[in-house]
Each structure stands twice: as structure tokens, then as C-alpha cells.
Amino acid sequence: MTAWRCLKTPRPVHEAGPVMPSSGAPLLVTAAALTALAALLHLVVILQGPPGYQWCGAGDRIVAAARNGSRVPAALTSMICVVLLAWAAYALSGAGLIGPLPLLRPVLVGIASVFLLRALLGPFVLVGNGRSARFVWVSSAICLLYGLLYLVGLVQRWDALPG
């Protein structure tokens, strides 16, 4: 039952409406919105099938598997979508727009770290794996932006976060 307390925790209300969270919250809200948008993009890729995977620069094996009717590309992409949606929820929790989720601080540190590591290592690790250069560089730049939003928003909100 306590896992759902984030949905039941009342937010402070001012006469003009909900109180806006403090400094750093806009960065985490932006991070949440962009992460949710990335999740939506992954769903669109699944719906488009092989052309969607190819346009987004997925590896040759993923595109070929999608063309051959394999469910593996859709399953992998769905898992990425679910992870991204969970990360967006954690950003909203860090911003104070929903109640505190479990292990909020360490999870937000982990999310920022994953995005930043992906941004920094992506150009070295993903090159030559059948992915387009466009995918490698664009996705690395996007991960850098997301990672910085999570990191700076987290640093600014650190004292306001539970535990």
C-alpha cells in the first residue's frame, strides 16, 4: 500500500492554485517531459515497423529482425519505453509534482549517470555496430541534454528531496 502513497500525498495548495515547486523543479519537469517524449517516440517506431527502426538508426540486426517479422525489436523497444516512462515519473517526483517515489535520490543520480555515460561513451561504443553515424551522434547529444537536465535539476533540488 505504501508504494502508492505518491499518488495519495496531497500537494500544498495556495489560493490561486497549486504551489509551484522550488528551484530546480523546472529542469526536472523539462527532463520528465522530454523523457516521456522519448518514450512516445519509441512507441511510434514500433508502430512504423522496419522503416521506423531504420529511420531512427537502429542497428542492422534490429532492422533485419523487424523485416523478418520477429517480435524481438518490438519487445526491446517496449522495454526501453517502460524504463523511460519510469524515469519520467522519477523526474516528476523529484520536481515535487507527485509524491516521493522509493529511493528517489539514488534513482535520480542513477538516471543522470546513465544518460551522461551514454552520451560520453556512445560515440565510441556504438560506432561500427551497424548503427548509422547520425543515430550515434544525435542520440548521444540528446542523452547529454537529458543527463544535464537531470543532474542540474537534482543538484538544485537535493535538499528538498526525501532521504
Low-confidence stretches: 10-21
Count the helices. How many? 7
What structural class do the secondary elements suggest?
A: mainly alpha
* Rg over C-alpha atoms, rounded to the nearest angstrom: 18 Å
Output the strand order for the largest sheet. 1-2
Number of strands: 2
Proportion of beta-strand residues: under 5%
Mean pLDDT: 87
Largest sheet: 2 strands, antiparallel
Q: What is the rounded distance between the termini? A: 20 Å
Number of domains: 1
Order of helices and strands: HEEHHHHHH
Rough outline: elongated
Task: Kindly state the percentage of residues in helix.
Answer: 55-70%
Which features would summarize this protein structure in a list?
163 residues, mainly alpha, 7 helices, 69% helix, elongated
Describe this protein's structure.
- With 163 residues, this protein is mainly alpha-helical.
- It has one domain (23-157).
- Helix content is 69%, strand content 2%.
- The chain is built from 7 helices and 2 strands.
- The chain has helices spanning 5-8, 25-48, 50-55, 60-67, 72-95, 104-125, 133-157; strands spanning 13-14, 17-18.
- It has a two-stranded antiparallel sheet with strand order 1-2.
- A hairpin with a 2-residue loop joins strand 1 (13-14) and strand 2 (17-18).
- The longest helix has 25 residues, at 133-157.
- The protein is elongated and about 50 Å long.
- The protein starts with a helix and ends in a 6-residue tail after the last helix.
- Residues 10-21 have low confidence and may be disordered.
Draw up the topology in text.
Layout lengths: L4 H4 L4 E2 L2 E2 L6 H24 L1 H6 L4 H8 L4 H24 L8 H22 L7 H25 L6
